[in-house]
Design goal:
Layout (H helix, E strand, L loop, with lengths): L1 E5 L5 E9 L2 E9 L7 E3 L1 H7 L3 E8 L5 E13 L2 E9 L5 E2 L1 H4 L2 E5 L6 E6 H4 L1
């Protein structure tokens, strides 16, 4: 099980460690249930970690507009294990998407400072 918190803007936040070779960076990511990818990071963090570019993809944003994203590859520590994922380049705060949460239960105590828990469905059924 993983835990996070609800920030002062009532966003559910989880800390995640991103790794590329010997370069490691912890980031606080806002959980975005409207984002269908794994994780988005700014181009500055992607450059800092020297993440390898994989491909470019088209995505539809919440306002209905379409945009292109560069996709990179990285490892993250997720539920105590290394996991290879795709990283979307987006110049916003880090966002954790629904592909990352597949097979997990998300619970949020929606008060400032509230508890965010993410548990594997096999652990909660």
């Amino acid at each position: 099980m993983m835990q996070g918190y609800v920030n002062e803007s009532y966003e559910a936040v989880i800390s995640i460690v991103v790794k590329n070779g010997t370069k490691v960076k912890p980031v606080n990511a806002v959980i975005d249930t409207g984002f269908t990818g794994f994780l988005s990071l700014s181009s500055a963090i992607i450059a800092e970690l020297e993440l390898p570019w994989s491909y470019r993809d088209r995505a539809t944003l919440g306002d209905g507009s379409e945009t292109l994203f560069d996709i990179y590859e990285a490892s993250v520590i997720w539920d105590g294990q290394f996991r290879e994922i795709e990283i979307n380049s987006a110049n916003t705060e880090p966002l954790l998407g629904m592909r990352m949460l597949r097979g997990y239960r998300l619970q949020v105590d929606t008060v400032e400072g509230g508890l965010v828990t993410i548990a594997a469905l096999t652990d909660v059924i």
